Amino acid sequence: MSYTERLPRTRTYLMCPPAHFTVEYAINPWMDTAVPVDAALAVKQWELLRTTLTDLGHAVHVLDPRPGLPDMVYAANGAFSVDGTVYGARFRYPQRTDEADAHRAFYQGGDWRFAAPEHVNEGEGDFAYLPAAYGGLVLAGYGFRTDPAAHAEAQEVLGRPVVSLRLIDPAFYHLDTALAALDDRNVTYYPDAFSPAARRVLAQLFPDAVLADRADAEAFGLNLVSDGRHVILNTEATAMAAKVRAAGYVPVPVELTELKRGGGSVKCAVAELRP
Ligand code: ARG
Question: Starting from the edge strand earliest in sequence, which strands make up the sheet with 250-254, in order?
């Protein structure tokens, strides 16, 4: 079998170091407040993720971590940007509310059109963008965090079609735990994380998708960042790495054991900036 060569596209990302990372409350099934986090290891693993991205030629902006916001390391949740327009986040749980201000300040200090949200939404946790699919398509998850009304709001703000997908398994509470963009037009996802109707929608839109199974999703193998060629995913997701390799991509494993304790992995820690 032969594949077209997978070409990388240089990206700009936003990350926030886990300087104040702890698991002191539980707002998803992965968080266990009884298991201590190795804070030094978390920082070391995060650094390696950051240098993995910069070594691949991508730009990484760093957001200042704020004390009292232990989940701020999951920078993907702070906003969602498409072609220079930013749809701000509004967090579901009060423990994370103030993170949205830090992200808003970052964009308002730069060359972005920032739209403050009315509805609850957790940024790239529940929104994904495929620039070359159907002329530019937004995929949006709901069921646990983001309010479906935010999907319509995002469409008004961004002027791109937004396809709503219902998540049904609390273990996969954000879209980015169950689906990822592999490049500008194709995705990988775990079908059983979605409602039967959402599964049909995904099968219709993405006939060539790379399908993942429950073990891949539980290893946070879908919580990946791809530049169109290199697929950065956590080391535990060995079967997922084999699947993306078989599809012609180059898996780049990074160890992120500590971030998994908060219910996240590679993608959660990396917001893509689309100027
Ligand atoms: N502890 C965080 C929460 O439950 C984890 C967020 C993970 N981020 C993500 N993009 N899935 O909100």
Answer: 225-226, 230-234, 250-254
Q: In what order do the strands lie in the sheet with 127-130?
A: 127-130, 137-142, 162-166
Measured CA to CA in angstroms, residue 217 lies from 153, 174, 211 at distances of: 29, 12, 10
CA of residue 1 to ligand 1 center, whole Å: 38
Q: Is 18 exposed, middle or buried (0-12, 13-18, 19+ CB in 10 A)?
A: buried
Under 8 Å between Cβ of 267 and 224: yes
pTM of the model: 0.97
Kindly state the DSSP code that residue 266 receives in the 8-state scheme.
T
Annotation says 174 is catalytic? yes
**Average pLDDT, 10 consecutive residues per value, the chain (275 residues):** 79 98 97 95 98 98 98 98 98 98 98 98 98 98 98 98 98 98 98 98 98 98 98 98 98 97 98 98
Identify the residues whose C-beta falls under 6 Å from ligand 1.
Answer: 27-28, 31, 71, 74, 76-77, 96, 125, 174, 176-177, 262-264, 268
Q: Across the strands, what pairs with 25?
A: none
Active site residue 16: no
Question: Ligand 1 centre and the CA of 74: distance in Å?
Answer: 6
